[in-house]
Amino acid sequence: MNVSVFTIGRFHHFDLARQILRLRHRLALFTSNPRSRVDADLRPWASTHPILRIPFAVGGRMGMAAHLYWLDELLLKDLARWLARSLDLGWTDVFHALDGVGPVAGRGVKDAGKLWICDRGCSHIVSQREILFDEYKIWNVPPPQFAPDRVERCVAEYEEAHAVTVPSQFARRSFLAQGIAAERVFVTPYGVNLKEFHPAPKQDQVFRVIYVGQITVRKGIGYLLQAVEPLVSKQQCELWLVGEIDERMRPLLDRYKGVFTYKGVSARTELWKLYSQASVLVLASVEEGLALVQAQAMACGLPVIATTNTGAEDLFTDSVEGFIVPIRSPEAIREKIEWMMDNSAMRDQMATAALARVKQLGGWDTYGDHVDSIYRELLSRHNMQFHEAS
């Protein structure tokens, strides 16, 4: 089949593109990444439109992302027009597109009698907005912007696409709660590159907690800092933070100076080295679809402590490869860290189980096979309805 994939950045869609090629389908990849930021093996199939993405990315690296919502909106609307112009409706059988740019291109796909799949990487945007507004109020931080126009565009995509793919049961439940029919929402957990992420010997005996990802309110960094502060103050453990800092978090990080070591932003290909020097990955997020870092850490032999709102249930079993805890509970996080420190042999068993579990999940090929089966099911369903309508 001919599959057109759209993504703003790389996210999991570059891996999706590779799977489409592995399965011997034909690919057209559309992205706002500049061509130099498209992986070399995918460039022959890529069309790029980076004109507004580059200044937005540069502003983000300068810590100005929270002030560039207006530019992000211009970027998404410009991408929508470019995508509608560029998509070959006669060639495309399946249009698999990240949400956010609006339904214009998708409507063209539907009018041409082809299949449109909307890809959402986290919870339904209305559910996400509710959770994040509450969370930012708790921490007295200006909330993220959700322009009514953007919410309307995303909701239209969810409601008009033939199907929506999400990475976790947590995300799926948010769509069902917003009235999207269950038979239209498919869970496709992400994979992990087992060649890129692998264990290496730990070089010391320090019990070390690691967090990898954007350092934002959404990721529950405040709860993580609250959880480990008493342990760090007693020199029972260390905390490493890895990732880009949202400037709105600076006052909170200053308040907890001395509790953590900031390791900067690491290239994806170098993360395995950091994971391998840790004892546990902790994710205190209040909302996300499926944090890729969980599978990455497991592939490096780390157990995981994560909240219910991270997609953890789709990756591992509570109390086997790690622990799943409630959101907004530093006490629960601290309790599980202390348990691991007090039960080192059982922590090691969890680490072994985490590595075995992620290998069982099968990496990105399993993800690709799952997506392929969804395409075939939806095409069969769609073609039957199309012929009946004719």
Name the descriptors.
Rossmann fold, 44% helix, alpha/beta, 7-stranded parallel beta sheet, 390 residues, 13 strands, single chain
CATH class category name of the largest domain: Alpha Beta
Low-confidence stretches: none
Q: How many beta strands in the DSSP annotation?
A: 13
Class computed from helices, strands and strand pairing = alpha/beta
Overall pLDDT metric = 94
Alpha-carbon distance between the termini?
Answer: 22 Å
Count of separate DSSP helical elements:
14
Taking all Cα atoms into account, the compactness measure Rg is 21 Å
Largest sheet: 7 strands, parallel
Q: How much beta, percentage-wise?
A: 5-15%
CA-based shape: globular
Describe what you observe in this structure.
The chain is an alpha/beta fold. Helices cover 44% and strands 14% of the residues. It folds into 2 domains: 2-191 and 364-389, Glycogen Phosphorylase B (Rossmann fold, 3-Layer(aba) Sandwich); 208-361, Glycogen Phosphorylase B (Rossmann fold, 3-Layer(aba) Sandwich). The protein has helices spanning 13-22, 53-61, 69-86, 104-111, 125-138, 148-160, 169-177, 221-233, 250-255, 271-275, 292-299, 330-342, 344-361, 363-389; strands at residues 2-7, 26-31, 46-48, 94-98, 115-119, 163-166, 185-187, 208-212, 238-242, 261-262, 280-283, 304-307, 322-325. The strands form 2 sheets. It has a 7-stranded parallel beta sheet with strand order 3-2-1-4-5-6-7, sandwiched between helices. A 6-stranded parallel beta sheet has the order 10-9-8-11-12-13, with helices on both faces. β6, α7 (169-177) and β7 (185-187) form a beta-alpha-beta unit. α3 (69-86) packs parallel to α4. The two termini are 22 Å apart.
